[in-house]
Design the sequence.
C-alpha cells in the first residue's frame, strides 16, 4: 500500500516536515511513502492514481498555500478531477509557517476543500493540543499537521515536536487507509 | 450499523434536508439512520457514542451554523471530546440557506473543523456541480450537501434536487462507514 | 465618537481581552469605548446603532465563536441587518483560546463574514508577528487580535503581550473610525 | 484618486468582471481605475503603492484563487509587506467560477486574509441577495463580488447582473476610499 506525499517547500522547512510524514507512514506494516516535490517538475500522475492515500503539504505564505502547490492542484483538474481518479482515497495535509498561528488554518482548509472536490476522505489529527514545546501538537491544530519555523535554517527548525506531529499524521493516515482498504474486500 | 444525524432547523427546511439524508442512509443494507434534533433538548450521547458515523446539519444564518447547533458542539466537549469518544467515526455535514451561495461554505468548514477536533474522518460529496435546477449538486459544493430555500414554506422548498443531493450524502456516508467498519476486523 | 465592544466570555479571559480593547479605544482623543457583554441579557441596540464602530469578541470553543455570540448575531438579523443599520460602520474582532493556534482563525473569519453581511468595513491588525512572548502579536494573526490562555485563571492569563495586542486593535479601530467619520463631512 | 484592480483570468470571464469593477470605480467623481493583469508579467508596484485602494480578482479554480494570483501575492511580500506599503489602503475582492456556489467564498477569504496581513481595510458588498437572475447579488455573497460563468465564452457570461454586482463593488470601494482619504486631512 502506497501513500503519496505531494508537497512544496521554499527553503527546506516544509520538505523536512514532509520527510517526517513519510517516516510516520513507513512505520505502518505494509505501507510505503512516496515523496513527490512539485518543484521537481513533471508530476507522476500514475503514482498518485495508484496510491491509497495522498497527503498534501505546503508552506503557508501570505496566509495561504504556495503558488506552486496551487499550480499542481490546477494541473490535477484534467488529469484526476474529471475522471474522478482520486475518489475515495484518503487525504490529509500539513503546513509550516514562520508565525505560531500564521493563518495556517487557511492552508489546511484549502487543501481539505480541494480533497473534497476530488471526492477524497479527509483525515486530521487525533491529538490534544500540546502544553509545552516538547509535546505533540504544540501549535494546536486538528485539520492537519502544523509546524512553526523561525528564520533559522532547516537543519534547526521545525523543532522535534513539530516533526513528531507530522510523523503522527503520516502514521495515522496509513493506518486509516489500511483499514479502509481492508474493508473493501 | 447506525448513522446519527444531529441537526438544527429554524423553520423546517433543514429538518426536511435531514430527513432526506436519513433516507439516503437507510438505502444502504445494514445501515440505519437516527435523527436527533438539538432543539428537542437532552442529547442522547449514548446513541452518538455507539454510532459508526455522525452527520451534522444546520441552517446557515449570518454566514454560520446556528447558535443551537453551536450549543450542541459546546456540550460535546466534556462528553465526547475529552474522552475522544468519537475518534475515527465517519463525519459529514449539510446546510441550507436562503441565498444560493449564502456563505454556506463557512458552515460546512466549521462542522469539518469540529469533526477534526474530535478525531473524526470527514466525507464530502463526490458529485460534479449540476448544470440545471433538476440535477444533483446544483448549488455546487463538495465539503457537504448544500440546499437553498426561498421564503416558501418547507412543504415546497428545498427543491427535489437539493433533497436528492442530501440523500446522496447520506448514502455515501453509510457506504463509507460500512467499508471502514468492515476493515476493522 | 463611540466604539462598541460586543463580546462573550466563558471564564473571564475574553472579558479581560475585551477590557484591553476598550483601553486601546480610549487612548484615542474623542473616542469612547462601550463594553457590551452578550451574557448580560438584553442588548442595547440603540448604542450599537449610534456607534461609529463595533468590535466583536468571543472565546474560540470547538474551533468557532461561542453559541452565545452566535445568538447575538442571530438577534441582529431583524434589528440591524434588515434595515442595514450598521452599514459602513467600522468592524473588527478578537478571540482567545487555550491552544496557540486553536483554529482561532475560523472565529475571526466568521466575525468578518458577519460584518460583511451587515455592510461593515473590516479592520485587522497592522503588526508583524512577534518573535518572543513579550512582543505584540506573538500568536501571529492579522484578521483580528488573538490571545492564548492556558488553564490558569483570568488574573494570570492572557499574558501582557496578548492584552497589549488587543489594546493595539482597539486604538487602531478608533483611529480609523475617526478618520472615516471626519471624511464624511 | 486611483483604485488599482489586480486580477488573473484564465479564459476571459474574470477579465470581464474586472472590467465591470473598473467601470464602477470610474463612476465616482475624481476616481480612476487602473487594471493590472498579473498574466501580463512585470507588476507595476509603483502604481499599487500610489493607489488609495486595491481590488483583487481571480477565478476560483479547485475552490481557491488561481496559482497566478497567488504568485503575485508572494511577490508582494518583499515589495509591499515588509515595508507596509499598503497599510491602511482600502481593499476588496471578486471571483468567478463555473458552479453557483463553487467554494467561491474560500477565494474571497484568502484575499481578505492577504489584505489583513498587509494592514489593509476590507470592504465587501452592502447588498441583499438577489432573488432572480436579473437582480444584483443573485449569487448571494457579501465578502466580495461573486460571478458564475457556465462553459459559454466570455462574450456571453458572466451575465449582466453579475457584472452589475461587480460594478457596484467598484463604485462602493471608490466611494469609501474617497471618504477615508478626505478624512486624513
Sequence:
Amino acid at each position: 500500500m502506497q501513500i503519496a506525499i505531494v508537497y512544496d517547500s521554499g527553503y527546506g522547512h516544509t520538505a523536512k516536515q514532509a520527510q517526517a510524514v513519510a517516516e510516520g507512514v513507513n512505520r505502518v506494516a505494509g505501507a510505503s511513502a512516496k515523496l513527490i516535490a512539485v518543484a521537481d517538475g513533471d508530476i507522476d500522475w500514475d503514482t498518485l492514481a495508484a496510491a491509497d492515500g495522498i497527503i498534501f503539504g505546503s508552506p503557508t505564505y501570505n496566509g495561504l498555500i504556495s503558488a506552486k502547490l496551487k499550480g499542481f492542484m490546477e494541473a490535477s483538474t484534467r488529469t484526476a478531477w474529471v475522471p474522478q481518479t482520486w475518489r475515495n482515497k484518503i487525504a490529509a495535509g500539513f503546513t509550516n509557517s514562520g508565525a505560531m498561528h500564521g493563518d495556517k488554518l487557511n492552508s489546511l482548509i484549502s487543501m481539505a476543500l480541494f480533497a473534497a472536490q476530488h471526492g477524497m476522505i479527509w483525515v486530521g489529527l487525533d491529538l490534544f493540543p500540546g502544553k509545552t514545546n516538547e509535546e505533540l501538537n504544540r501549535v494546536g491544530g486538528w485539520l492537519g499537521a502544523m509546524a512553526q519555523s523561525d528564520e533559522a535554517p532547516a537543519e534547526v527548525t521545525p523543532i522535534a515536536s513539530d516533526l513528531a506531529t507530522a510523523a503522527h499524521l503520516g502514521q495515522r493516515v496509513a493506518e486509516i487507509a489500511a483499514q479502509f482498504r481492508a474493508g473493501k474486500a
